[in-house]
Amino acid sequence: MKPLFQTGISQKGLIHIDPRTKLLILLIGNISVFLMPSLKYEVMIALAIMIFGILCGVARFSLKMTVAYFILIIIQVAGTDYLPDVLKFIIVTFAIYIRKLFPCVMLGGILITTTRVSEFMAAMNRLCIPKSVVIPLAVMLRYFPMISEEWGYIKDAMRMRDVSFSLWGLIKNPGQTMECVYVPLMMSASKIADELSAASVTRGIENPKPRTCLQQIRFRWVDAACTACFTAFLFAAFIV
Q1: Which residues are within 8 A (CB) of 121 and not within 5 positions of it... i.e. 6 or more apart?
Q2: Among 33, 95, 115, 126, whose Cα sits 20 to 30 Å from the Cα of 23?
Q3: What is the pLDDT of residues 116-132, one digit of tens each?
Q4: Contacts of 148 (CB under 8 A, 6+ apart)
């Protein structure tokens, strides 16, 4: 069972982006998505994010998220035309809300999957960000992939007990399904948080001296090109 966010850092991408550029693109992309004047422009920026993810080496994740994004669009359009008013309000509103979040989740997933913790901390130190901000962000970069991996193990264990985490399984055995999901997930989350904290302290995350990194942290032409592309979408949102 492959997790949604892989724990190994992708090195198969055609481009390598500075972590500072990724954070800037994440900010610009999120603002652009919520300011887009129409669905057509929003689809264009979602496709741009998909291409960006493929170039960064996370093609599988980007394609899966894009397919789910277009499924939500189909639900929204079909629901608007064919559903009764009450169901239309509930389902279409939910689809629009989730659809708006998908491009943001794609960008966040690309950032988490393609950025090493040491590389991220070195970049944040270059920006003179306080450690009170850097340390929680660095732990978060490792927390989500590990939780995703644990979720894969939980689903495998549920299959061995003939418990399916699906809509039908939730309707058929709601108590057993919720118990098999939330109890081990919460226990795993607590255990992972403790392990990550201990590992971070062991690796000297609280060391006041400046950190070094084998990976060169610098702004390249590809960073400028990606930033300019997403900034163009932001300007388009304001102009249109």
Answers
A1: 134, 138, 205, 211, 213
A2: 95
A3: 877 887 788 787 777 77
A4: 3, 4, 5
The token duo for 227 is 């930033």
pLDDT in tens, 5-51: 444 444 566 788 888 888 889 888 888 888 877 888 888 888 889 99
What end-to-end distance do the CA atoms of the chain give, in Å?
44
- Does this model's pTM top 0.85? no
Place of tokens 């392990």: 195
CA 207 to the chain's CA centroid: 29
SS (H, E, C) the chain: CCCCCCCCCCCCCCCCCCHHHHHHHHHHHHHHHHHCCCHHHHHHHHHHHHHHHHHHCCHHHHHHHHHHHHHHHHHHHHHHHHCCHHHHHHHHHHHHHHHHHHHHHHHHHHHHHHCCHHHHHHHHHHCCCCHHHHHHHHHHHHHHHHHHHHHHHHHHHHHHCCCCCCHHHHHHCHHHHHHHHHHHHHHHHHHHHHHHHHHHHHCCCCCCCCCCCCCCCCCCHHHHHHHHHHHHHHHHHHHC
The closest alpha carbon to 63, from 12, 26, 106, belongs to 106
